[in-house]
Amino acid sequence: MKVDIANADAVAAAARQTADAHGRIDILVHSAGIAGKNAPLDEYEFDEWRRVIDIDLNGAFYVNRAVVPHMKARNYGRIVNIASIAGKEGNPNASAYAAAKGGLIAMTKALGKELAKHNIAVNVITPATAKTRILEELKPEFIDYMLSRIPRGRFLEVEEAASMVGWLVSPENSFTTASVFDLSGGRATY
């Protein structure tokens, strides 16, 4: 189903529909996001800032908020939010994206602590650039800059991220919560 991630009511309705159709919600992998335009902060358009924050941060809040009651009712769940290494380190000319992803990291850490006693693990992944559709939004010189920051000298493969997510959402992950997992090819500095 397609849902406008920036519409809290639509997200809540989709969560209810999913729970009704399947009897429960055990896993959430939240990866919706946009890069937004590249521009210095002092030139960043207000509407563009709001658009990036609405999708990348508010949308994540709406989705997490919509599934948590279903998980709490069963005393079980696994949530993985996909942020970005930009949320930890920032990227020049991408302040809205970095701010939204930094906020997503902080929200995930707080939520993981809130839900720890409910057997709900909430973690966040901070990948470096991967070959996904988000690259279509970026200028070639910015893509080159992103690649130059990765010591491995290549972009993340989607399958590598899927492997990390697979473990984080599995019952095998019975301890780790409120944690940040870097998939940065060596870019992460903390």
Describe this structure in words.
Strand 1 (27-30), helix 2 and strand 2 form a beta-alpha-beta unit. This protein has helices spanning 8-22, 46-74, 86-89, 95-115, 140-148, 158-168; strands spanning 27-30, 77-82, 120-127, 180-183. 47% of the residues lie in helices and 12% in strands. With 190 residues, the chain is an alpha/beta fold. It has six helices and four strands; from the N terminus they run H-E-H-E-H-H-E-H-H-E. It has a four-stranded parallel beta sheet, with helices on both faces. The mean pLDDT is 95. Helix 1 (8-22) runs parallel beside helix 2 (46-74) and helix 2 (46-74) runs parallel beside helix 4 (95-115).
Please render the helix and strand layout as text.
Elements: H1 8-22, E1 27-30, H2 46-74, E2 77-82, H3 86-89, H4 95-115, E3 120-127, H5 140-148, H6 158-168, E4 180-183
Parallel strand pairs: 1-2, 2-3, 3-4
Helix pairs in contact: 1-2, 2-4
